[in-house]
């Protein structure tokens, strides 16, 4: 396994696998924030201390203990080019913060890319588990297994009354962030999403864009996650999120059924127009590509389009991001050049799908 494999392969194995409710839920993620007791938090420590944290974790981690996930690869951020870090971020393997702000950060990646252990992000350790479809409990089980294994080797910063201590007060307690990535075109097209998001926020959850805080909901893809980590158990946090997401799934399916009954020909026309744009455009911007890909995915799920894999949305949403486009081009591209290459790549991929 090598860096090139993580960089050059657009779709992780978890993204191409089928999971429960995968027509709406693209992925389930569990992230645990942890810190090492004898070190300052990353927001305060020096570069030398950051290197010591990496050395300590590297020294403690024995790859053979992760055999069920395959080999683990340690990637040091200061050895990566900015474009390489951007590609890893676009694949959701590292956070935007680690890609952009942590010169002395690192990441341990499993071969199947389901497990990512980020080092020296906002916290010393962030364990991330990604599963396809609606599998929050399964992702939590794996994250807890990795967490227990690490805690046997590393002395975590922990308070008996409060719980795990973290750089950001909103993560104190369990240190748990649970999230699902959802494709919600039905709720967007029926204009229900604008009233649903504030209602979700009132329940202590948050709705963000495809790359988390501060990002847009490109292609009608939203991340729904918990906000509170203190005062609840991990299982309670996950069950609360599951309950809300289950309602969202039901509402999205109802919205799609309503569109099919009341606007069937208009919806079918929208799907095929978007498919035509993707199949024939010579220049396409990222927002238009994301919108059209969302329409095509909806068309696949609703049976308007056949012989095209639904995973094409997962793949092309990654392949058409700026980092991947420039990676395939072998160097930097101006925005206009990216739009041309994006259109070319989509056309080629759709032709492959139809062969």
Automatic annotation (TrEMBL):
NCBIfam families named in the record: PRK01059.1-4, PRK01059.1-5
Function summary: Catalyzes the specific phosphorylation of arginine residues in a large number of proteins. Is part of the bacterial stress response system. Protein arginine phosphorylation has a physiologically important role and is involved in the regulation of many critical cellular processes, such as protein homeostasis, motility, competence, and stringent and stress responses, by regulating gene expression and protein activity.
MF GO annotations: ATP binding; creatine kinase activity; protein arginine kinase activity
Identification of the protein by name: Protein-arginine kinase
Coiled coil start-end: none
Lineage: Bacteria, Bacillati, Bacillota, Bacilli, Bacillales
Gene, per the UniProt record: mcsB
Domain of life, source organism: Bacteria
Catalytic activity: L-arginyl-[protein] + ATP = N(omega)-phospho-L-arginyl-[protein] + ADP + H(+)
Top enzyme category: transferase
Annotated Gene3D superfamilies: Glutamine synthetase/guanido kinase, catalytic domain
Entry keyword set: Allosteric enzyme, ATP-binding, Kinase, Nucleotide-binding, Transferase
Regulation: Appears to be allosterically activated by the binding of pArg-containing polypeptides to the pArg-binding pocket localized in the C-terminal domain of McsB.
Entry keyword RNA-binding: no
Species name: Cytobacillus solani
Residues binding ATP, per UniProt: 27-31, 92, 126, 177-181, 208-213
Protein family according to the UniProt entry: Belongs to the ATP:guanido phosphotransferase family.
GO CC entries: extracellular space
Residue ranges occupied by any Phosphagen kinase C-terminal domain in the UniProt entry: 24-255
InterPro entries, alphabetized: Arg_Kinase, ATP-guanido_PTrfase, ATP-guanido_PTrfase_AS, ATP-guanido_PTrfase_cat, Gln_synth/guanido_kin_cat_dom
């Amino acid at each position: 396994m090598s860096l090139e494999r993580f960089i050059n392969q657009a779709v992780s194995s978890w993204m191409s696998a089928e999971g429960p409710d995968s027509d709406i839920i693209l992925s389930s993620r569990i992230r645990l924030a942890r810190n090492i007791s004898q070190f300052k938090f990353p927001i305060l420590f020096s570069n030398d201390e950051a290197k010591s944290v990496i050395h300590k974790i590297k020294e403690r981690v024995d790859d053979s203990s992760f055999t069920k996930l395959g080999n683990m690869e340690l990637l040091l951020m200061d050895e990566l080019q900015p474009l390489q870090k951007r590609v890893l971020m676009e694949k959701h393997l590292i956070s935007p913060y680690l890609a952009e702000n942590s010169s002395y950060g690192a990441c341990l990646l499993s071969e199947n890319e389901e497990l990512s252990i980020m080092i020296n992000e906002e916290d010393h350790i962030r364990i991330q588990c990604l599963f396809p479809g609606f599998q929050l409990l399964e992702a939590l089980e794996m994250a807890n297994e990795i967490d227990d294994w690490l805690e046997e080797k590393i002395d975590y910063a922990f308070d008996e009354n409060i719980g795990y201590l973290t750089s950001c007060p909103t993560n104190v307690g369990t240190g748990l962030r649970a999230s699902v990535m959802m494709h919600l075109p039905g709720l967007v097209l029926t204009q229900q999403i604008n009233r649903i998001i504030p209602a979700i926020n009132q329940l202590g959850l948050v709705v963000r864009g495809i790359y988390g805080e501060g990002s847009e909901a490109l292609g009608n893809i939203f991340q729904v996650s918990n906000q509170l980590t203190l005062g609840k158990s991990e299982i309670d946090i996950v069950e609360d999120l599951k309950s809300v997401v289950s309602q969202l799934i039901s509402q999205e399916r109802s919205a799609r059924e309503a569109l099919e009954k009341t606007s069937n020909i208009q919806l079918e026309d929208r799907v095929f127009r978007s498919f035509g744009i993707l199949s024939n455009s010579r220049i396409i911007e990222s927002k238009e590509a994301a919108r059209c890909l969302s329409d095509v995915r909806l068309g696949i799920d609703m049976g308007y389009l056949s012989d095209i894999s639904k995973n094409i949305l997962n793949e092309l949403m990654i392949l058409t991001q700026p980092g991947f486009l420039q990676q395939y081009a072998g160097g930097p591209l101006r925005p206009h050049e990216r739009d041309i290459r994006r259109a070319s790549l989509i056309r080629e991929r759709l032709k492959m799908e139809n062969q």
